[in-house]
Amino acid sequence: MKNYLNTALFILFALSSFAQSSDNVWNTLSKITFKKEYDELLGFKVDVPVFSEEVQALENQEVVIKGYIIPVEGYKSHKEFIFSAFPYNLCFFCGGAGPETVMEVFATESVKYTTDPIYLKGKLELNASDINRLMYALNNAEQVKNPQE
Questions:
Q1: Are 86 and 101 in contact (CB under 8 A)?
Q2: 1 HSE (CA, 13 A, CB side)
Q3: pTM for the full model?
């Protein structure tokens, strides 16, 4: 019985160390709170993200993340776009999710639009000060194959 328990614990530990997979980056990015701060330019209080230590640990780190390209007005190119944890009909811009579920992407090469989920790899940037930008950006991004294939 003890051997089975040890084996089960080992498997759970191995899976949890693999847990920061592309699918779980969004889970980590959701670990935020908000505080109200007065914005001089707007003249009223706005919600400012407060990133958890887990989120802060990802800043300027290379991550692989799975998500959906969101076609939005002002879509600049296939190198600059919005990426979401959820498909278009469930994303932040449709009112189906929070602002922590989307990010700006700045890719090194064009990424072909698809409604299917894709994987991107790039350096994660956090933003708590510029209200004209999203909270997250993926810089020097490139499309990659499913890392679990």
A1: yes
A2: 0
A3: 0.80
Which of the four pLDDT bands, split at 50, 70 and 90, describes residue 124? very high
Among the CATH numbers 2.40.50, 2.40.10, 2.60.40, 2.30.29, which is that of 20-144?
2.40.50
Please enumerate in sequence order all residues whose Cβ is within 8 A of that of 89, keeping only pairs 6 or more positions apart, or say none.
96
Domain assignments of the chain as residue spans, ordered by start? 20-144
Task: Give the angle 13-23-122 at the CA atoms, nearest 5°.
Answer: 110
SS3 category, 39: strand
Confidence of residue 3 (pLDDT cuts 50, 70, 90): very low
Q: Classify burial at 80, counting beta carbons within 10 Å of its beta carbon; exposed 0-12, middle 13-18, buried 19 or more.
A: middle
* pLDDT, tens digit, 9 for 90 and up, residues 63-117: 999 999 997 776 667 899 999 999 988 888 777 799 999 999 999 999 998 999 9
Reading the block at residue 95, the tokens are 């009112």
In the numeric block, which tokens belong to residue 127?
Answer: 């933003």
CA count, 13 A, side-chain hemisphere, 146 = 5
